[in-house]
Amino acid sequence: MSKKTQSDNLDSILDDIIYLPDHTAKIAELAYFKAENRGFEPGQELDDWLEAEQEFSY
Known about the structure:
It is a single chain. By secondary structure, this protein is mainly alpha-helical. The chain has a domain at 21-58. It contains two helices and no strands. It has helices at residues 6-37, 45-55. Helix 1 (6-37) crosses helix 2. The longest helix has 32 residues, at 6-37. The relative contact order is 0.13. The mean pLDDT is 80.
């Protein structure tokens, strides 16, 4: 079994960081469509976001 080097760990962390903005943008888009479907009534923005996070498969 081989050990991961610090460089391997850093590469893995950087890959996750680079992926994060795209991931967040997709969640934001899904949350937007949820808000649109309910007529953009205020007060449920957090619920839209949390539901979008749960539905987003990563």
